[in-house]
Amino acid sequence: MHSMNQAHPFLRFNTGARSFLARSIAQLAVFERDESVEHFFYAALEVRFGIEARLNEYLEPALKSIGKDNKSISEYVATKLLKRLISIDPDAGRASTLRITGEQSGHSTVMQFTPVSQRLAAIHGQLGELLHFKFFTNNEHWLIRKPLGRNPHSSIADYVPLLREGIAELQQATSGLLLSNPRFTELVEEVAKEAPDAPSGLGDS
Hints:
205 residues; 6% strand; 53% helix; two-stranded antiparallel sheet; elongated
């Protein structure tokens, strides 16, 4: 088994937002079952990666629309990434649903665009506080099992609700299949330009 893995030229690690989400859920479950502190931090890291990944999944088509690619973005702070995304595509902060119905079959397919919320972008920053050694020196009681209220003292238990909220918000942001809001305005304008003028007597009897 080991030799087979060595023969394979690539490491296996999915960097899609949904994969980071799935790993964060699994890591948090291990922490809650075994009280293995490392898995709490692994879960926080996976959520952080997942938020950035989803924003990049939305930024890629937005950047392409203006002739750029992801390499033009050096930012990793989620609030700044979200701001950049919305500056390129003002609709990127708005959820939408697209229903496509077959004329013959009547069968409908529903697809959604589910944005990264301002709250999820803020959670990205708050989770970042957990991922530096300073967390331990700033929170001398971090290892106490019960929440301490975060004012003035914090334990890991104080951050579990934030991690759960991040997972729930990321689940929402990754639930849609569309990577941008559908743009019908341009399509309608193009069709209107190509359509012949309607006869002036249309509707007269």
